[in-house]
Amino acid sequence: MKLTSAYQSADCTISFELFPPKTTAGLDKLCQNVDRLTDFGPKFMTCTYGAGGSSQGMTLDVLRQVKSRTNLPVASHLTCVGATVPQLCDFLQQATDAGVDYIVALRGDPPQGSDRFVQTEGGLQYANELVELIRERFNHFGILVAGYPEVHQEAPDAQTDLTNLKRKVDAGADVVVTQLFYDNADFYRFRDDCDRAGITVPIVPGILPVTNFAQAKRIATMCKSAIPASLEDAFAKCQNADQEFEIGVEHARRQTIDLMENGVPGIHYYVLNKTEAAERLLQGLSFAV
């Protein structure tokens, strides 16, 4: 299935993001969770890999398993970090041989302890260059790229960030999937800005059902995503983990319903290889089939 066709329905399409487990037992558990997530009718699943390119092999193993068990299209993340152009092409060939359908093309984060990305000698500096490489040499892949409703942490301003996003789309990206956010108003503003900038590909919100206050704070800090005061207050009043779970799931469910009512083409869920929160927040909702 072509990536763009996943978003041609009048209804909302969903997809899930996984990450490669570190053990065989972890892979077995992930496969069980994938089976449960499939019950909600996702159109595809994606898989990340570790910082600096680590666990790429396991990423392809996960995607082979997912495709075998579900017959769904699958997408692999790919970043410019620590890789030359020949190494990027080698991975893209491995992904082709593994039956991967789509690539999530990213520049990648700076190394831990640094706030600046350093281009690898013989490698690429920007995500739009990676999109161009894929289009030129591996054009059979559908391509997803990242968008940032609250502005990428390295961008000097929102307009520069938007210009960079349009550069990725103009290079050949099919779909924009956003960084996580906790306030839908940030997404709607971003979507309007994309429209004014002439970005016409689907803009798909990314949602993380956070069920732990400490985790929420940590992830928000890393991603430069603001936690609404009302949500922070609700978490602060919790007396146990069960209450935190309920609050996080309910917030993500409200986000989901509001996004669907406001006509998003799809929603991409960062499920952290778990199913409990996703199952609870998606229960009873109707998505594209």
TrEMBL record:
Q: Which cofactor does it need?
A: FAD
Q: Which UniProt keywords apply?
A: Amino-acid biosynthesis, FAD, Flavoprotein, Methionine biosynthesis, NAD, Oxidoreductase
E.C. code = 1.5.1.54
GO process annotations (BP): methionine biosynthetic process; tetrahydrofolate interconversion
Question: What are the record's GO terms for cellular component?
Answer: cytosol
Q: In which pathway does it act?
A: One-carbon metabolism; tetrahydrofolate interconversion; Amino-acid biosynthesis; L-methionine biosynthesis via de novo pathway
Task: Give the reactions, separated by semicolons, that this protein catalyses.
Answer: (6S)-5-methyl-5,6,7,8-tetrahydrofolate + NAD(+) = (6R)-5,10-methylene-5,6,7,8-tetrahydrofolate + NADH + H(+)
Q: What class of enzyme is it?
A: oxidoreductase
Q: Name one Pfam family in it.
A: MTHFR
Top-rank taxon of the source lineage equals Bacteria
Task: Extract one GO molecular function annotation from the record.
Answer: methylenetetrahydrofolate reductase (NADH) activity
**Alphabetical list of Gene3D superfamilies matching this protein:** 3.20.20.220
Q: Which InterPro entries match?
A: FAD-linked_oxidoreductase-like (IPR029041), Mehydrof_redctse-like (IPR003171), MTHF_reductase_bac (IPR004620)
Q: What PANTHER family does the record point to?
A: METHYLENETETRAHYDROFOLATE REDUCTASE, METHYLENETETRAHYDROFOLATE REDUCTASE (NADPH)
Family listed: Belongs to the methylenetetrahydrofolate reductase family.
Tell me the protein's name.
Methylenetetrahydrofolate reductase
Q: Which organism is it from?
A: Crateriforma conspicua
